[in-house]
Amino acid sequence: MPTIQVNDLKKTFKVYKRGQGVLEALKSLFSRKYELKDALAGVSLSINEGEIVGLIGPNGAGKSTLIKILSGLLWPDSGEATILGITPWKNRIKYVANIGVVFGQKSQMTWDLPPIDSFYIDKDLHNIPEDEFNRRLNYMVDMLAVEDVMKSPVRELSLGERMRCEIINALLHNPKLVFLDEPSIGLDVIAKDKLRDFILKVNKENKTTFIVTTHDMQDIEKLCKRVIIINYGKIVYDGQLEDIKKKYFTDKHIEVKLSDKVKSFKFKGCVVLEKQDYQLKLELDTKKTPIQDLIGYLLKHYDVADITVTDPPIEEIIKKIYGE
Amino acid sequence: MNFRNDWAVAKMGIKVWSAYRFESIVMLLTVPITLIMYFFLWKSIYSYTGSDVIRGFTFQQMISYYVLSMIVGFFTWSEVDRWIEQDLIHGHMIGAMLKPISFVSFYRSFEIGVNLMNIIWQMIPVFVLGFLFFGLSIASLFNFSAFILSIVFAFFIYFGLTFLLGLSAFWLKRITGLRRVRRVAFGFLGGSLIPLNLFPVWAQSILHYLPFEHTRFVPITIYLGTLSKESVIKALCLQFGWVIIIYLVISFVWSRAYRHYSSVGM
After folding, report:
1. How near does any CA of chain B get to the CA of A323, in Å?
2. Rg (chain A; Cα; Å)
3. B45 in a domain, yes or no?
4. For the purposes of burial, counting CB atoms within 10 Å of the CB of B72, is it exposed (0-12), middle (13-18) or buried (19 or more)?
5. B70 vs chain A: nearest CA distance in angstroms?
6. In terms of CA atoms, which chain A residue is nearest residue B256?
7. How far does B88 lie from chain A, in Å, by closest CA?
8. Which of A14, A322, B71, B199 has the fewest CB atoms within 10 Å around its CB?
């Protein structure tokens, strides 16, 4: 049985609307206009144990609503979900004992206390044995480098420091399933790298399932084999990251270094992006011409010193899909 | 109830209290001032009327009433409605909801932790103050044990009603005004402002059907020893009845609030 099995989840919010100005504010005392917003318009998905799935979509697409329903914070209007054998919103207490959740924008730690105190509350609530707790804590503190910050009150930490502690707080009880809603906000490049390594390691060692939402495509590329793209409350793509690349990356970028000075260059399906004395930057439409034809042609007619073939950045594809 | 979990959260309350210990110790200073104020207020009332007993209270009993009122107040104190309101507005509610403990237990145990510290740092000093300076008499063992049981019930009733008001924030968002009404209602109808004996008889008979007097007035009168043994036991049973009713209502309202919960915009 899959870890997460979700069928046709729907959720509608009432969004109150009001114009600008005092008169409008007074009017709203007597009659409030609202619009119904379909945050989720029928979402079905299935995720297996040990997967790391990237959940992406533009702002307001419904990612957070989906995560909140799947983590037992919200009731859906309709639909079913069986996660780790439990329907989250029907048996919240039992369910949340088995999952870990990090919301990048909201803290789950006690604001006035240092993170270490929040860690100990989790130790008690989840009944983690002392030696196991210490072993896990030391390991995570080491990997995420929070030794110095975990003894200051949460309100005094920087966003990046807090985020690293939030992640420890969510993973200390060794949950089978972890939701990370924008876990990398506020992190610097080194911390991001550390976090990604950490997630991959936990995933590999414990077969922990991760659902990650993010706007950082590097997170997706480094962590996720599978991505789910959501827009207007619906899943618009669910599949392997590689397949998206194949489907949308029909263009390849080719950089050629030559030993001789470049003469004119022309090839079917190929656009010259940049031309220097000893260097060519090309873009090839692989639907018109296979890449090996171009390389064969180059090797045959030019004195090639080096060839690099790259995909356009993943952001380009995502933009394409969001735009559809 | 799961005591291991409750204690875990109560410890958190103790730690948060300790983070703000300065404020709590300053608050302790306001108690003698309030007591001195009541002392002189009632002294002038008694000398003006020229009688030794007003509505069954001698002057000494009246002062003892206010000392005990402070003590009960420390024990039953709850601002859980404010915490729920704040947590909802600032989106910290998820912290409580993602913990494997029931929502009401979480807030209640936290409150118990905070109050435990209030009892140690405030209630006990006021007891001593009452014995030394305000002529508080030592209650009989029966009355004292009944008093302790009664303030435990009083805490559950006070907390329960305040928690229910807090849950209304799931629909109303802001409940700052209602919270003020709550405080006045508990103060006036519960008997912390003036003893309920001073109310007209018809008003007293209405108040008997409301839970407020059980949060302040009832424990005080048990300590003062003005009730017969049977009446004390009856009062304790009534308090317990209120606890049951309030917690049944809470479990119903909470299940609604949870369904209604939506922290939109994140």
Report:
1. 22
2. 25
3. yes
4. buried
5. 28
6. A75
7. 12
8. A14
pLDDT tens readout for residues A48-97: 999 999 998 888 888 889 999 999 999 999 999 999 999 999 999 999 99
Asked if residue B266 is part of any domain, the answer here is: no
Environment class of B190 (CB within 10 Å of its CB; exposed 0-12, middle 13-18, buried 19+): buried
Q: What is the DSSP letter of A48?
A: -
Read off the pLDDT of residues A216-254 as tens digits, 9 standing for 90 and up.
888 888 999 999 999 889 998 899 988 887 777 777 888
Cβ atoms of A36 and A101 closer than 8 Å: no
B264 part of a folded domain: no
Nearest to B99 by CA among A127, A85, A140, A161: A127
Please tell me if residue A155 touches chain B, with a CB cutoff of 8 Å.
Answer: no
Quote the pLDDT of residue B3. Answer: 81
B145: in domain: yes
Nearest to B163 by CA among B58, B81, B46: B81
Which residue range is the domain that position B177 belongs to? Answer: 3-259
Q: Give the total number of structural domains in chain B.
A: 1
Whether A74 and B262 lie within 8 Å, measured CB to CB: yes
For B194, phi and psi rounded to 5 degrees? -135, 155
